[in-house]
Each structure stands twice: as C-alpha cells, then as structure tokens.
Amino acid sequence: MVIWFYSKTPEYGWLSNFSVHPFVLDGERWASVEHYYQAQKYAGSPAVVDLIRDAASPSQARKAGQDPSLRPRVDWGTDKVDVMRQAIGAKFAQHVELQGMLIATGDDELVHESDADDYWGRLRSGAGDNRLGLLLMQLRAELRGASTTAGPSTEPDAAPASKSIDFEPKR
C-alpha cells in the first residue's frame, strides 16, 4: 500500500515537515522540520537563521527561506539531504509517539504528495523523486532496528537491536 501525505492530510500530516512537533537541534529549539531546514540554507548568517527560526508558522518559515534576495550557503546543494535527515531524525527521536506511529506504517511506501516540489515529493502520476518519503522509510527501518520492544528481527542478516540511533548526517 502507498501512504500519500502532505501537511493537510488529516491522518498522516504528522509526517510532513509542516507538522508542528518542536525539537531541539544544534542547541536551538525549532518549531518544525521546515523551520530547521529553511534556516540551515543560511547557516553562517545568524540574522537570517533567527528570522526563520522565529517565524510564526512553518509556511512563514518556508516563505522566509525562499526569499529570492537571499543566497543559500555554497554547499547547500550537496548538504540539504543530510540536513533533512538530521531534522526528521531529531523530530522523531524527541517525540516517542511519532516513532510508534511511523513504525505502525509497516512496510507501506511513504510518499510526500507535492505538485510543486518534485525533489522532496511526487505527483500522483508518478513524477518526482520523493526524497522525503525515502528518508522517512529509512528512518522507519532504523527505528525498527533500534526498538527493544519489537522483538527479534526476522531478517537473516539483521544487526542486533540498539537502544540509541545515530541521527547525525552521513557525510
């Protein structure tokens, strides 16, 4: 089965970067993954980072982060996937109820439905890379492996369960 989600999906909106599930990362509190992701485009520019972090909503954070007068950091193109991985990892690590909900999606494919972003999402027609969905499915697999309540793995070569997950970016 495929689970299609975006910020306004009643049942699965919590998978979206726009869900307001605050977390602490890099010593700062972030209201949503979208706040963190947009701010990291401008790491090294504290005034811009603060403006985005303090945005009243995820949509306002996105708007601020997409301001055409601003220039993202030079390594943004190569680092943005790791930034997203780190942000969703922190969100789920700090919200145990979300971990359970993510694991409960089973083996379903998670697809971020987007008609405006074919990098992070996918159209229902199949166009798009769905990188957000892929990262969430990767995190789900990691959480399953770390879960001490899930019981032994049925995978023949599965690594032993661990009590902590490394959510640092893979560089």
- Average pLDDT number: 88
Helicity, as a percent range: 25-40%
Distance between the termini: 32 Å
* Cα gyration radius (Å): 16 Å
| Biggest beta sheet summary | 2 strands, parallel
The total of beta strands comes to 4
SSE order, one letter for each helix or strand = EEEHHHHHEH
Structure description:
This protein has 171 residues and is mainly alpha-helical. The chain is 39% helix and 8% strand. The chain is built from 6 helices and 4 strands. It has helices spanning 33-40, 46-53, 58-65, 76-93, 96-103, 131-146; strands at 2-5, 23-25, 28-30, 109-112. The strands form 2 sheets. A two-stranded parallel sheet has the order 1-4. Strand 2 and strand 3 (28-30) form a beta hairpin. The radius of gyration is 16 Å and the shape is globular. The model is unreliable at 148-171 (pLDDT under 50).
Structure summarized in a few sentences:
The protein is built from six helices and four strands. With 171 residues, it is mainly alpha-helical.
